[in-house]
Every structure is written in C-alpha cells, then in structure tokens.
Amino acid sequence: MEFVNNGKEKGMVILAIKGRMDAVTSPEFDTQIGSLINSGETAFVLDFGGLDYISSAGLRSVLAAGKKLKSANGKLLIATLQGTVKEVFEISGFDSLFPIFANVDDAVSSV
User: Fold this and answer.
1) pTM of the entire structure?
2) More exposed terminus of the chain, fewer Cβ within 10 Å: N or C?
C-alpha cells in the first residue's frame, strides 16, 4: 500500500491510498492517519482511486479513523471509489456510513 499526503484544500487533508489495504498494510494506514489526527487534523478526504483491493481489516481501519474523527467533531470523506473496492463499500454498507464522492474535487467542494 502506498499512502500519499497530497496536501490540504479548504482545510481538508487529501490522502491518496494506492495498492492493497489489508491485514498487512492497514496498520500503516492506522499509524499515518492516527498521527495526523493526533497533530490536530480533523478533516480528511481519502482518495481511493488507486486502491485495488480492500479487506475487512482495511474497512475496520477506515471505520476506526471515522470514529476517531467523529469524536473530535471532524469529518472523513471518501473519493474515487472504483471496481471491487466500490463493490465492497456497497455490500458492507460503508457507502451509508461515509459521504462518498466521484472525485476529490467534488469532495472538497462539498465542504
């Protein structure tokens, strides 16, 4: 998994997640986003356009980040879901837990 911080727009931290988000790689996501949240960031757009696969461990990590942000009155937006990752979000019901946008620009514009 590649985790790229693409800076901020309108106060939202844009994070591009690429590759696979599974039991092996999701702890890295937890550490990276946890560090950003602990440093005071409360608004994120997760760009999943380059994400090829997400397992239940990856979903748990996204959910944990969302819960952490909710308790800090923050927000977590999801952008660019595609293919099987989009299907997993729909089947698991995660598409009703998080705002989902066609692309990063749409997510940022919604703020």
Assistant:
1) 0.95
2) C
